Amino acid sequence: MTASLPPAQAAERTGLTLDTLRYYEREGLIGPVDRTSGGKRRYSDDDVFWIGLISCLRDAGLGIADLRQFTSMLREGDAAGDRVGFLTRHRSELQRRAAQIETAISVLDEKIAYYSATD
Amino acid sequence: MTASLPPAQAAERTGLTLDTLRYYEREGLIGPVDRTSGGKRRYSDDDVFWIGLISCLRDAGLGIADLRQFTSMLREGDAAGDRVGFLTRHRSELQRRAAQIETAISVLDEKIAYYSATD
DNA sequence: GCTTGACCTGGAGCGCGCTCCAGGTGGCAG
DNA sequence: CTGCCACCTGGAGCGCGCTCCAGGTCAAGC
Prior knowledge:
Two copies of one chain form a homodimer.
Chain A: E1 4-5, H1 7-14, H2 18-26, E2 43-44, H3 45-59, H4 64-75, H5 83-118
Chain A binds a DNA duplex (30 and 30 nucleotides) through α2.
C-alpha cells in the first residue's frame, strides 16, 4: 500500500505548508514530484520521506542552498563529489552551533540562578 | 583601569561590525552608550560585557525582539515582570533547538556511515 | 588653517526563506 | 451542465537582521 498523497495530505504529514512544498520543489530540495494527467502533484512515500529529512535538516538551521546541494549530491547516485566530506563539514557546523546554544543556555542559567535568589 | 573604548575597538573586541553595534543600540539591545562632548561613542567595560552576552544569545538564535525584551527586563532593576519565567522559557526554547540539531546530526551520521561504506 | 581619518545620522538596499495573491484548470457531486 | 473546491502558475510582498551609502562633524597632525 505505497501511498501517493495529494498536496494537502503531504503538507499535513510533513508539517509544511503547500507553498513551502512548492517552494522546496522549485528550489530543487525535492526532486520533481509526479503529476496526475491533469497536472496535479502526487507525493510518493519516498517524496514524503525525503521531505522529512530535508525538513529536519532545515529545522537545524541548514540553508536552502546547502540543502539543494545535499539533495543533488545524494540523488545523483554516482560521480557526486566528496559526499562524505560535504556531510562531515555540515556535521561539524551543526556541532559548532550546538555548542553555541549550550553556551547561551549556561548564560541563561546564570541569570536564572541570580534572579531566582533575588526575586 | 576601566577602559572606555572608541567604536572601532569595541567592534574588534566583540567581533561585531560598527554598523551592527549602532543597529543594536538603536534597537535597544544595548543601553545608550556614553558620548564624548563631540558626540562620539565611548564603550565602557560594562557595555562591552553586555554586548558579549547579547552577541552570545544572538549566536544561539534568539531574535532581536527577544533580546530587546531581555535587555529591558534585566536592566530595569525592579518591577520587571516575570524575569525568571521569561528566562526559563527561552532556556527551554534553546534546548528544543539543541535537540533538533542533535537529530539532524544523527541524520547526517547515518548518511556519512552509508557513504563511507560505499564510496 | 588644512588635511585626514574615524566617527556621526537617517534612510535605502539586500539576501534569505518563505507567504500571499490573481487568474486559471481539473475533476467530482448533484 | 453547473458548482465547487483543491490545485496550478508566475510573480509580488514581507519580516528579519543586518549592511551600505551620502553627506556631514570632530579632532589630531602638519
